[in-house]
Design a protein that fits this description.
metal-binding; membrane; manganese; Sulfatase_N; 28 helices; about 725 residues; alpha/beta; Alkaline_phosphatase_core_sf; Alkaline Phosphatase, subunit A
């Protein structure tokens, strides 16, 4: 096909043609950034990856057209060309600034970041951030200047019709609506829940992300501006009144031990001791976790409820790290995590003799805004997907690297942490959609037989997670870390949603027809276990509590008084613990006597619905309802008002986030070892410089069950 340059030149000589030329140039530059500079986690070769690629291919156009077409409203020739070039330049500056920033911080520029210009280039000389292909981003400017100067592109002196300008604005708005619709299909509640900055960019483009970020910043700052130091008094009064004193039998029991959190993704309590019956044969889903649950070295809790809402995993992390709830709408980590002053476990422990802290997670670091929130929490290191084996269809799925691989890869970093350390492993393999998460030799555990594929795969991925946890424990024992540590295991939230529970019912001894809101409430229970090697008085404790109670429980086990911190939970081991679990849904709660859930009230022990409340029951329920509501209210006031910035009684000070970088964590840890010399307490130093990576063994399902290789195709 022959290109008619005369027609192209003539088209570029019209106002609309000039705008479209700038739009195409901006679109191509954005696609270049998507392809070579940003990691948008688009895995081509999969249906979902192709869909995401299409959205990313399309998304620069709607807002690009909307903004550039504003110049069409200008009447004079000078105003039109000046405005169109100015808008194009601003779009370019925003794009390239993000390219430059991303190379340093693996994230996008937010409205809050823009307030502190120094953050854009901290730690690396600017010249080192340049790449050889950067000339492509700039080459059109001298070219356009030349074409306009030589009048190869003629200036159009005719004003563009107002009605036509409105039509183009309407078209761009329609295109953006279509873009948003397509994005919401792939990721429902994209804007309300936040998830990750790169999700917004991947779905809606960089200009949309700027608007989203500015709105988030405005909402947060508006609440923050209203707050003052006087707001602290009722907060501190509540904390002191509801503080549960430590149980002397447990206080300081684990003092000085390494703390290792194992975050069990989407793991519900009913999986413990559960056996999946397939054609008359029972298959134990989590044999290793079951052994821990019943171990004499474990304090296990049977009635701990998740208290998350839209933030889900991020809500669980927020509660476990800060002793405060997530938000009623959206995610605290996304909306406030990178800016609020916080009293989080890593920072608290660093002031109580702990030498280092780290998170290990096989997903991208910006998900749930972890890369900035973790700095505010005081984490020294964050090892995300960029530190581990490159992901492909054989070792990962959409939410990250499979757990065994992540854990094995993590040892090269874990062994360099100074002891005692505080470490957290966030697993991902037991994440929705379950049925398609595993491949190859990890297949073999049977799928359940229901009409819901999500439920069917849930037991298989839970079994895989159990196997990964066992491999990690075996490593701890082989390396010598086991006896020096306590291992805290918790489930973050439900794995099977309430809408699917009726299909799950027959597998757990219930019927779909008689399924009730009481059953939904009871399935909100998640595991919580504290494994303490050398301890011999382990037991299963039936105390009722929630995730909000985990941090004060841990603090007291470590010999740290919790009542000097602004935390609304209570030590589960304390005789003063009030057994009231507040859900984030209004008027929903659980106590040992009553369960109120989704508008219905039941006796907790029997599950019988209470249809006619007597006066005593009404009084008791109102007391519980007010207590649950007050706990949530106090937490929300602290979170949205950023009240901890005014609090001095903890003597913690503030985290120096400027000194924390997650880009070169291993060299930083190695430098600390060198500086400490013989005083270094890392496992690597204690092994005289010999790595322990070879001690981690992670056999696959089929290696552990060779008989399954022959029957795997039938069972799947």
């Amino acid at each position: 096909m022959r290109i008619n340059f005369n027609k192209i030149q003539k088209a570029m000589g019209t106002r609309l043609g000039f705008v479209l030329t700038l739009l195409i140039l901006y679109w191509l530059k954005t696609l270049l950034a998507y392809a070579v500079d940003f990691n948008l986690d688009i895995q081509l070769g999969k249906l979902q990856g192709s869909y995401l690629a299409f959205i990313a291919f399309f998304n620069p156009l709607p807002l690009g057209l909307l903004l550039l077409a504003l110049a069409l409203y200008a009447r004079s020739t000078k105003a039109f060309y000046s405005l169109s070039i100015a808008i194009y330049s601003l779009l370019f500056i925003w794009l390239y600034s993000n390219v430059f920033y991303y190379r340093e911080f693996s994230d996008f520029i937010t409205a809050n970041t823009m307030k502190v210009v120094s953050k854009v280039s901290v730690g690396t000389a600017e010249l080192e951030l340049l790449r050889f292909w950067d000339f492509i981003y700039f080459m059109d400017f001298p070219l356009l200047t030349y074409l306009l100067y030589k009048k190869i592109i003629q200036l159009d002196r005719r004003p563009f019709k107002f009605r036509s300008s409105v039509a183009i604005t309407a078209l761009s708005a329609l295109l953006f609506s279509a873009n948003l619709f397509l994005a919401e299909i792939e990721r429902p509640d994209l804007l309300s829940r936040g998830f990750s900055n790169y999700y917004i960019v991947r779905a809606l483009s960089l200009p949309a992300f700027l608007g989203y970020s500015a709105n988030q910043s405005y909402s947060a700052n508006k609440e923050r501006a209203k707050a003052s130091e006087t707001d602290l008094q009722p907060i501190t009064d509540y904390i002191q009144e509801h503080s549960a004193k430590p149980n002397p039998d447990y206080f300081g029991l684990a003092k000085g031990k390494n703390v290792i959190y194992l975050h069990l993704e989407s793991f519900q309590q009913f999986l413990l001791d559960y056996k999946l019956n397939i054609d008359g044969t029972e298959h134990e889903v989590t044999p290793f976790l079951n052994s821990l649950y019943h171990s004499q070295s474990t304090l296990a809790f049977s009635n701990i409820f998740n208290q998350v809402k839209a933030g889900k995993t991020s809500d669980a992390e927020t509660m476990l790290e800060t002793g405060l709830f997530g938000l009623d709408q959206g995610s605290f980590m996304v909306n406030y995590g990178g800016t609020n002053t916080q009293q989080a476990a890593p920072f608290i422990l660093s002031k109580n003799g702990y030498q280092s802290s780290a998170v290990f997670h096989g997903n991208i670091g910006t998900f749930w805004n972890r890369n900035t929130t973790y700095k505010q929490w005081g984490y020294q290191c964050f090892f995300d997907a960029s530190y581990f084996t490159k992901q492909d269809s054989s070792n990962s799925f959409q939410y990250g690297l499979n757990d065994k691989i992540m854990m094995k890869d993590s040892i090269q970093y874990l062994e360099h942490l100074q002891q005692p350390f505080y470490a957290k492993y966030i697993t991902v393999s037991n994440h929705y959609p379950y049925a398609s998460n595993l491949t190859g030799d990890e297949l073999g555990f049977p799928l359940a037989k229901t009409k819901d594929e999500t439920i069917n795969g849930y037991f298989q991925t839970a079994n895989y997670l159990d196997s990964a946890i066992k491999s990690f424990f075996d490593y701890l024992k082989e390396s010598g870390l086991y006896e020096k540590s306590i291992i805290v295991i918790y489930g973050d939230h439900y794995g099977i949603s309430n809408s699917r529970n009726p299909d799950l019912a027959p597998l757990i001894g219930k019927t779909s027809e008689n399924w009730s809101n009481y059953d939904n409430a009871m399935l909100q229970r998640v595991p919580f276990m504290v494994v303490m090697p050398g301890y011999e008085k382990g037991q299963i404790i039936n105390t009722y509590g929630g995730q909000i109670d985990i941090l004060p429980t841990l603090e007291h086990l470590l010999g740290i008084e919790s009542n000097s911190f602004l935390q609304v939970g209570q030590d589960l081991l304390s005789p003063d613990h009030q057994e009231i679990i507040a859900f984030r849904t209004a008027n929903s709660f659980v106590t040992p006597k009553y369960t109120s859930y989704d508008g219905r009230t039941y006796y907790t022990e029997s599950g019988l619905e209470i249809s006619n409340l007597d006066e005593q029951a009404q009084t008791e329920l109102e007391i519980v309802r007010q207590a649950a509501s007050q706990q949530l209210k106090i937490s929300d006031q602290i979170q949205t008002g950023d009240l901890i910035r005014f609090y001095q009684a903890d003597h913690l000070g503030k985290v120096d986030t400027e000194s924390i970088s997650y880009l070169n964590s291993l060299p930083i840890l190695q430098k600390i070892e060198q500086e400490k010399g013989s005083q270094s307490t890392s496992l690597f130093s204690q092994r005289q410089g010999k790595t322990s990576t070879d001690l981690f063994k992670a056999p696959s399902y089929q290696e552990l069950h060779p008989e399954s290789a022959e029957t795997e195709s039938k069972s799947q």
